[in-house]
Specification:
Largest sheet: 7 strands, mixed
CATH superfamily of one domain: Vaccinia Virus protein VP39
CATH topology of one domain: Rossmann fold
Oligomer: single chain
Order of helices and strands: EHEHEHEHEHEEHHHHHH
Strand order of the largest sheet: 3-2-1-4-5-7-6
Shape: globular
Distance between the termini: 28 Å
Structural class: alpha/beta
Helix content: 25-40%
Number of strands: 7
Bound molecules: S-adenosylmethionine
Strand content: 5-15%
CATH class of one domain: Alpha Beta
Radius of gyration: 20 Å
Number of helices: 11
């Protein structure tokens, strides 16, 4: 039986902040954690969570709260989640990362969204979960000459009460059909933080070959409404002509998007600016941008997971997410090292559990 050291529940309890489109939450649920509470300030993200929470009995009972985290206190979280003080096993969250991203203007702490990382610390300090998982972009390590990350480590240790591991992972090395580097800080209260997750996929002989964009996009019906969020943008005849002629891996000078290689992981899925909305990459075999559903596949969201809102809202949720397959791997790892799970679920078992029907 999986045990939850704080709450004594059958499954360790999770409080999720900055849930967005739900990648991190879905991964934890698939790995056997009980998501009791999720929150985000964005109404479309909250609807996405509400639409999907009852499907496949992943986490049917949790409470979704649409709220600015800076107005949330520990008491409100406990009340909404039905947990008593001391019963939160894991706090998870990826605060907004645009201000740290190497793709953005890197305003760091001068950008109010950068300040959200301190809100994550505030809630850790108040709730004192048994463990926490903080996720962010690779760029957080170097912004302000590394000062942000140093200060964050310092605060998240809560005066030495939490042991921390700070690791950068390349998602493609964990079976995600996409190059995507992300930083994960895992903290464990009064115990040792788990060791680094071992790389499984790669070009070396000891690894499983990378999953590719071609694999993820195979067997898709034509864009339309058969699958949720599988909607196409209209392109002009000029753009279509350019996309037809583009070799794999090349960037279109006008739309500034890349054509995917079918036999390699996808380029990183990005969100784009708040104003213009994000863009997908160019499909490897068709002269068009990939649809939000196809981008979701490149992020390892299963086809049954639906995103609320218009195309711009969908792309933001997809592009902001932790790939659920990676989230599930880190969750099962923490389950073993912190919560006494008998053994980690294999990647294959997690693929099945999440319901990803395009990777094997
Ligand atoms: C990087 S995304 C999180 C993605 C999520 N971890 C996933 O795996 O899908 C950051 C989220 O923080 C939310 N956010 C931004 N400012 C916020 C605030 N003041 N309070 C609560 N949520 C906020 C955004 O709406 C966005 O969904």
């Amino acid at each position: 039986m999986r045990n939850s050291q704080n709450s004594g529940r059958a499954q360790p309890s999770v409080v999720a902040l900055f849930s967005g489109g739900g990648g991190l939450d879905l991964g934890f649920a698939a790995a056997g954690f009980d998501i009791c509470f999720a929150t985000d300030v964005d109404p479309f993200s909250c609807n996405t969570l509400r639409i999907n929470q009852k499907k496949r009995k992943m986490y049917p009972k949790h409470e979704v709260l649409e709220e600015d985290v800076s107005g949330l206190n520990a008491g409100a979280i406990l009340k909404k989640s039905g947990l008593a003080r001391g019963e939160v096993d894991v706090l998870i969250g990826g605060p907004p990362c645009q201000s740290f991203s190497v793709f953005g203007q890197r305003k760091g702490l001068a950008d109010t969204r950068g300040g959200m990382v301190w809100e994550f610390h505030r809630i850790v300090d108040k709730l004192r979960p048994r463990a926490f998982v903080f996720e962010n972009v690779y760029g957080i390590q170097s912004v302000h000459g590394g000062r942000v990350l140093r200060e964050l480590r310092n605060r998240l240790s809560c005066h030495g009460k939490y042991d921390l591991s700070v690791e950068t992972y390349e998602m493609a090395e964990h079976g995600i059909p996409q190059w995507r580097k992300r930083v994960f800080i895992v903290g464990v209260l009064g115990g040792d933080a788990p060791p680094r997750l071992a790389k499984k996929y790669g070009d070396d002989e000891s690894c499983i070959p990378f999953n590719t964009a071609g694999q993820a996009l195979a067997n898709m019906p034509p864009p339309g409404e058969v699958l949720p969020n599988h909607r196409m943008r209209n392109h002009s005849a000029k753009i279509i002509k350019r996309y037809e002629k583009m070799p794999f891996g090349q960037r279109d000078n006008r739309t500034r998007i890349n054509k995917l290689y079918p036999d390699k992981p996808s380029f990183t899925i990005v969100v784009g600016s708040d104003q213009g909305g994000g863009k997908g990459h160019v499909h490897p075999h068709e002269p068009r941008e990939v649809t939000p559903r196809e981008s979701a596949r490149l992020q390892t969201f299963p086809d049954w997971w639906e995103f609320d809102g218009n195309v711009r809202h969908m792309i933001r949720q997809v592009g902001n997410a932790v790939p659920p397959l990676f989230a599930a791997q880190i969750a099962t790892h923490i389950g073993v090292h912190v919560f006494g799970f008998p053994k980690a679920m294999t990647t294959r078992a997690l693929i099945k559990r999440i319901g990803i029907n395009f990777l094997h």
